[in-house]
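I'll show a typical protein example:
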Amino acid sequence: MDQKDEREGYERIVDVSLCHEYYNGSCCGFNVTPSSETAEIMRREGLLCRIYDGKVRIFAFCKPHQNVISKKMTLSFFVRASISEVWNVTRFDNVAHDELPVANVSCSNGVCVQGRKKNTLPELQQIFGVLFLLEVVLEPEYINHEKYLTCTVKIPTKKLRWCYCVSGAYANKNLLINDSLKTDDPVRFECIERSSRFSLYVSQREIPIVSGAPPRFQLLDSATSKVLMKCLPNANAKSIAKTKTGQDGGSIFVAECFVNP
């Protein structure tokens, strides 16, 4: 797309893409809404905003030999999930429960994500299902007729411990789940429950949930190392559940994968 807008005299000054790791970096699953203050700033400054699914583009009216923008401005946008899966699998690390993740983007500092207390954002109470706040900083010294703010904000995928629920013929066998992709640093599984009907195997560390990723685990007979199933199913966004961890009797959130050979 050319930097010029379809309206003569306007030039693109911002091009931000929102990419989710769950969809392998695809720009989809987002609804973006400017805050009321930002809408007023854009109206006052004569800025145009084009919002696509996962893309935010801002245009300014530019005159030859004049600055594209005259002063530093911060524009804020509430980002919500347009697909339920996006809400289920998104987690920003190091952001507290009572904080909203804020992705601040600028030419000078790139992309910086940090938490901000929700009670400092009164407009947030009027908008349901906000994933994070996107802040776009316009800096006159960096934006001109030949250069504009362009960046990608990578939305992180939630990492959960995976739980394989094995039923059927292999329910009460001694099994081993083998990591076929990381043989040098494999993810190991612990059997936390076994009965004649099913067995539960939980990973000892967290694993990201990524749509369309290749299967990485195999089911083996622990005594003979014979491969019983070459590819076990991957966890997905709809498989999040709570399970007991075993000896301590506590419970954790896991991504369940059902296996019935």
Q: What stands out?
A: The radius of gyration is 24 Å.
